[in-house]
Amino acid sequence: MGIFSGWHLFIVLLIVLVVFGAGKLPTVMKDLGRGVKSFKDAMNEREAEQAETPPVVHPTIEGEVKKNI
Asked: What is the pLDDT of residue 30?
C-alpha cells in the first residue's frame, strides 16, 4: 500500500490536534490555504511573464544563432 497507511495519517492528525488545539486548528488551516493560494498565484504569474518575453538570441562568431532560454 505504500509507505503510509491510514494509521499513519490518523496519528499525524492526532498530533496536530494536540499541538494546535481544536480552537486554533481552523485558523491554522485557513492560513495554510492562503499560503498555498499565494504560492500558486506567484507561480502562474511567473509562467505568464516567461511566456510574454521572447527568448534572447545571441549571434556567435561563426554566424550560428544560439538561443538563451
From this structure: 92
Give CA angle at 33 (30, 34), nearest 5°.
90
CA-wise closest residue to 54 among 42, 67, 40: 67
Q: How far is CA 17 from CA 6, 7, 27, 32, in A?
A: 17, 15, 12, 15
Euclidean distance between CA atoms 68 and 63, whole angstroms? 16
CB 66: neighbour CB atoms within 10 A? 11
Tally: H helices and E strands in the chain: 1, 2
* Beta carbons of 66 and 56 less than 8 angstroms apart: no
Coil vs helix vs strand at 63: coil
Higher pLDDT, 25 or 59: 25
